[in-house]
Amino acid sequence: MKAVAVKAFKSTPELMELPKPQVSPGHILVKMAAAGMNPYDWKLTDGIMEGHMPHVFPLIMGVDGAGIVEEVGEGVTRFQAGDKVYGQFIHKPIGEGSYAEYISVPEKVGITIAPKSIPLTTAAAIPTAGMTAMQLLEKLGLKPGQKLLIVGATGGVGSFTTEIAAALGLYTVVTASPANYQRMLDLGAKEIIDHTKAPVIPQAQVKHPEGVDGLIDLVSNAEEFDKMCGLVKPGGTALTTLFVANAEAIRSKGLKGGNFETKGSPEALDELSNMIDQQKIIVPVGNIISLKEAPEAVALSKNGKARGKTVIEIGL
């Protein structure tokens, strides 16, 4: 089968021909339709989990994906052949990922039945970005009409967050370049700050001198995040997904929040599926590429040049 993998930590991803995995007891074999790209994918190939989980090489990349169950192993009860599934396919050992034509995973990993109203290629864009966005907003706990600033809004997580925030009735201010203005407005942003024109903070201070009720920062380093927190009203919440927050500094500003980590689960995916099937949100797919194009797309992601949510179409 074809797969995108690395031969060693920090090596360049390659399109390889590798053996098709075999199903084993408690596992399901999924024929992949598509994989969703996330920065965590290349962080895994750089060794972020080295020493914490076993790895195998060549290490097939990818966590998010969607496909059809082709075969189930002995003892499997959650799924049956023919089921359309999606979610986070990460499992031990690291290296049996979703950037492949087939994947064999334990039935207890974070996957579930895919939304019925969208293609599997679209569903592959949802898992990590969608769950992160939903849980960030749950953590903020803002009420309709309150102001939310999203810094780094044009990527996968930011796009989902903007859209779900709009569905919740929040007044959402996002950072974006002119090339992304219309897309962000279509996703429900009420206001856009052009971070390419001038620094975000003075622009936000002019437009919202009273401050915002919540901050979700998806791109800033520790120093910048600390400064961004100054835009939030006392009693508000500031969250970062990059683990650069200083808890003491946040408390000193009278704020809540800090570092945020997604907790993926089939239940969270089911909640997202319901929102999608009820047409409360649409899935913001930015780019659809082939397996052959994936190594180049990974390089763009590492250099911070990716735009929107990228999905690797693998086919059925």
UniProtKB/TrEMBL annotation:
SMART domains: PKS_ER. It holds the Pfam family ADH_zinc_N_2. SUPFAM superfamilies: GroES-like, NAD(P)-binding Rossmann-fold domains. Residues 10-312 form the Enoyl reductase (ER) domain. GO terms for molecular function: oxidoreductase activity. Gene3D superfamilies: Medium-chain alcohol dehydrogenases, catalytic domain (3.90.180.10), NAD(P)-binding Rossmann-like Domain (3.40.50.720). This is Alcohol dehydrogenase. It comes from Chitinophaga caeni.
